[in-house]
Amino acid sequence: MSCLISIIIPTRNRIEVLSSCLxxxxxxxxxxxxxxxxxxxxxxxxxxxxxxxxxxLNYALKIIRNNTPFGPxxxxxxxxxxxxxxxxxxxxxxxxxxxEFLENHFLLQQKKEKVIVRGPIIDIPYGDITSAPPPxxxxxxxxxxxxxxxxxxxxxxxxxxxxxxxxxxxxxxxxGLRLKKAGLTKVFSFKAFVYHYKPFPKTANFIWKKxxxxxxxxxxxANIYLSKHPMLSVRLKTxxxxxxxxxxxxxxxxxxxKIYKKILFNSSYPYWLRKLCxxxxxxxxxxxxxxxxxxx
Length: 296
Known about the structure:
Spore Coat Polysaccharide Biosynthesis Protein SpsA, Chain A
């Protein structure tokens, strides 16, 4: 049975925030009979199906499982295979959507045929969105395709060939580039915003381990991205150019790196400052990995 919107969500080992994500979709102003959620369990240690089926959801829920984690690109492709919606909307399992989120996406999809609809993604350290701030100008993004909050008609995703499973990072940006080459244009709407539940882990060791692993994976995928699309725009987007290496060296020198680490691992500092320090440190290690691979 077909529907108007299919929401594809990959998930792995995050059942608590996933439950909040699914329940907020239950409160959408868009008719719930016209949507479905396609949940792809990408190798969770404890399968999520039983817990999700206990939730009092008023929309169709399809669940498929990869016994081994293959990454978000593969998971989203699997979701796309069984999605029946005219419009595909991608979000992550830690996305919390306000009640008019789906309605705003669908209205913009109806106004223009070949369109990618994007909206703000607002990071918050808590799971209650009732007191969360509205989108601001700094929540604008030039990224044309971000799978935390993006919609496009299914036929264009299929024509483009879906996500390239070689990527662990940049898979959404790379697909967005192919869609733009196929003639789709981006519309960014401040009304189609979501909240990204992104608390800092409680242990410094966990933060540090994930930061290093993510920086390495992102650099490897950046190298693949530039090899596949040897374009100036891709080089600039991925930061694979000498001026970026220089500015990271200036703003994240060894002395500043110690200061950033001290702030990052101290929960008494405000969330926005710790987040900024995380981004500086991440950029430092990301650039180090790029230079190791001699991408420049």
